[in-house]
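Today's session is about reading a structure prediction critically. Students often jump straight to the picture, but the first step is always the sequence itself: look for stretches that repeat, for charged clusters, for runs of hydrophobic residues. Only then move on to the predicted structure, which in these notes is written as discrete structure tokens rather than atom positions. Here is the chain we will use throughout the hour.
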Amino acid sequence: MAGQVSGPEIERLVQLLARVPGLGPRSARRAVLHLIAKREELLTPLAAAMEVARDRILTCTTCGNIDTSDPCAICANPERDRTTLVVVETVADLWALERSGAVKSAYHVLGGVLSPLDGVGPDDLNLAGLVGRAASGEIRELIIAVNATVDGQTTAHYIIDLLAHLDVKITRLAHGVPVGGELDYLDEGTLTAAIRQRTAF
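Below is the predicted structure for this chain, in token form.
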């Protein structure tokens, strides 16, 4: 049986980093060793940045984005087209669309998708906020930009039914988003094409 090769503090750091998506125990251990080797250049400023993030980062009460202000910089920007609302699953999807430069409108982050198998129902998503924004009279078009997965499409259809009584044009992303694809993994050109060639539900 292999013995423990490092103290509990280092093991704790490895265990915490291993919880980050994309990092398993081996990758986390390599990351920890690199951070410790570059303690002054990386570990110390990273620890300080994480403390600041913990204390200052907020969730925007308007759209669900994260920022250091509420409303976030996107919602507070007067140059945004507030008549168009892009609905996304997560903040990562919002950031992916922003990187593409294809969207100059407002966003709404659902906080996930409907998934009965995972116990995620309508009350677990930011749907009440979406209905309120769509019913405000300011929104003319709602772009449903959820992932092209079964749960994503189920959520899209649920939203369409939820907003059916409102006079709001509802569109979805078109060409370029493969079935089963996730927005955060698509390149900017693909996202731009998908936004420009969106179609009505």
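Discussion point for the tutorial: DSSP finds eight helices and seven strands in the chain.
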